[in-house]
Every structure is written in structure tokens, then in C-alpha cells.
Amino acid sequence: MKLNNHVSLWVLAIAGIGGAVGIATAQTTSSSTTTTTPPTPSHNWHRHHGGFMLGTLLRATKQLNLSAEQQANIKTILSTARAQAKAAHSGNQPPVDIAVLGNPGDPNYATQLESAKALASSRIQTESELEGQIYNVLTAQQKTQLPTVLAAMKAQAAQRRANWQAQHAGTTNAG
Q: pTM of this prediction?
């Protein structure tokens, strides 16, 4: 059903955007499962940060030859944002109920949908503000290079998409 697919995509997008400042963290309640994160080398400091928008900017900075001071400034920006997000997240705001969002017939659907929209809007605003702070760390020359780097990233993504589509051209989606 198309409506449920759109709701699912929005829920996934909301969850993805939450990664911009580390709001959503995976936790297991089972004592038999432990997850360890390998240490991240210092040159990959931005590897696991960012939602769609912020992540794109952070990936682009890898190609802008940032100085150690710029990298440290960006780390500080992200750490501060992460701490602020954790503080805001601990406000005991009830989470969006995915089971309700997946069922437009649920009496609480409209309320949950509005909550999800407000959360998404807030996360996009936060991510946009972080992008601005990171952009201000760049030098004038790096700011001039940024559009070229982003265009190259866009071309690479289009090429990967075309390759994927060529590989999967014969498959049909029965869903």
C-alpha cells in the first residue's frame, strides 16, 4: 500500500536524521549480546557523524585538506551538539510509536504523525545549524572548493546508482 510505504520512508528518514547529533543510539537489553565499537583512527573523526545533510558536508570536508585546528574545531562543534542532544533527549519526551504510524486507522495516528513531523523539523533545524557552524570553520579557499567537491560526490553517487540499476535491471519487485 502506497500510504504505508510513504509513512515507512518518513519514519526511516526521521530515524536517519536523528543520527546527525547522536540522538539515537542502538542499545541492547539482552545480557547475552554485547556490542563493541572498534577504535576510530583520528583521521576518520567524522566517520560516524551526521544525518543526510550534515553527513554529506562532513564527507566533503575529507577532500578539503582541513588543518588540525579545523578538525579540532569541528570535533568540538559535534561534541557540544551531541551533549546538548543528550540533555534534550533526557527530557522524558515519549518516543514516536512506529506501530501507530504504520496504521492510519489507529485513533492516535494523527497525533503520532504530528509528533513525528515536529521531531523531524527540529532535527533538520539542528542539522542545518550544525552545518552553518562547520561551514564557518572553513577557509575562504575551502568554501570556494566545496561546490566542486559536492558536485563530484553527486556525480559519483549517480554513477553508483546507474551501476546498481544496470545490475538489477532484470529483477522485478513483486512487493
A: 0.61
